[in-house]
Amino acid sequence: MTIQHPYLQNLFADIQKRNANEPEFLQAVAEVFSSLEVVAYKRPDLLEAGIFDRIVEPERMISFRVAWVDDANTVRVNRGYRVQFNSALGPYKGGIRFHPSVNASIIKFLGFEQIFKNSLTGLLLGGGKGGADFDPKGKSDGEVMRFCQAFMTELARHIGAHTDVPAGDIGVGAREIGFLFGQYKRLQNEFTGVLTGKGLTYGGSLVRKEATGYGLCYFVQEMLASKGTSLAGKRVVISGSGNVAIYAAEKATALGACVIALSDSSGYIVDPKGVNLAVIKEIKEVRRGRISEYTQYVPHAEYHPGFGIWNVPCDVALPCATQNELHGEDAAVLVKNGCIAVAEGANMPCTPEAVDIFHENGILFAPGKASNAGGVATSGLEMAQNASFLSWSFEEVDCRLQQIMKNIYKNCRKAAEDYGCGDNLVAGANIAGFLKVAEAMLAQGVF
Length: 447
Ligand code: GLU
Description:
7-stranded mixed sheet; 5-stranded mixed sheet; binds glutamic acid
């Protein structure tokens, strides 16, 4: 990935200096900038207005202490973050991640990606992201509740239904959103749509839980249709076994694919007959267990410890676990095994080397900011329902989600074509996502 445009090259060198210890953030900026060179050549007005210089600097970055007491009565301290990256298109919007790896670099890369992803949805959503280096693994419900309450006690003053609307991400699901919402309501004495991904009894939207995974498959269908094929009869490998992976597997299966592998951070399972999703949901959603337990329920399946899931031969690969989980070597193996399409369900799961290999070998490749946008898009639909004090049927939300994913695909293809990038969806997503934000920033004056 090289940046040749002199202005962007200089700017990127400066960004490297100012964010020296933030490799994931620099990786995300480098990817976006290399796609935007064609825009920089065509649109000198955007350079003059300092749009590129401004878009890489968060409007606000908050870091705070989260102190709580564990079940053994020991005081514990974690670090919380919220990056309010860009509000040109709407209130800051993006998830909260609880994972021990969370740091400023990861929150900033996620917040940066979120700007363009949210723009692609066509809804009025700015970009933000948050989290903490808290590890929910092995914690009791009481510990998770006290942590969430402590986290929200600080965050509450920075967010609001028209200011910043967080949601879930890795380690933050329905349970955590419930605790966070309860604490916000207690502090502000206000029942508003300040969080999305809420439970259905208190303002959540139907389809939100399924939306990222379903949306990913709707996007893959569009991509495959461009080559005259579909998910029907395809062998699909999906990394991860969290919310995105489970509902990607559910929709892929409903569309006639055979999902043969899933993973977690310890290893992966292979079930050549197609994974039994009732079992996966029981293990992951009900018991919060490990994927290795699958073989206790399904004896013909295999469990392999370690990160080798990309060695399982497949037609379609859906990385749905976490950033930088699919490397150049994995991409080469997928190519060798005849894989025809890769679509990111996680945020930036494929390294730049892996993406290059997919492009060089003519593999259909969908970047997460386009293909996983169904989650945040449905959050936008949850906000719309909350604002009108109504709730829509499953069919209505699902139908809107499908339409949004189709439009994202169409707009990415068109932007790539308009700027001479062929059918490169990475370029298309970055260009289409960026241009809408850039026009809004131009109109709103220097900020
Ligand atoms: N965390 C999800 C994402 O990466 C969803 C964010 C949201 O719904 O606000 O897009």
